Amino acid sequence: MARTAQEFLTDWRKSYIYAEARAPDELDDTVAECVKDAAQDGITRDALDKAAGGDLRTYVKAAISKAGGGDA
Fold this sequence. Notes:
The chain starts with a helix and ends in a 6-residue tail after the last helix. It has one domain. The chain is mostly helical. It contains 4 helices and no strands. The model has no long low-confidence stretch (mean pLDDT 90).
């Protein structure tokens, strides 16, 4: 069974933001990596944006900040 965009984001956030302690200056690269990884699972950028509450970049920025990466 394929994961939903929301499930993908939750798992990806834990594995690639929280576990790797991304820094705010990595925001654009982190978003691009997320989009690329999601595409490999058949999840579109539009689906990611919707699952992220409308804006994937803002979602990733908040996750980096929450993970202790500073003020993104």
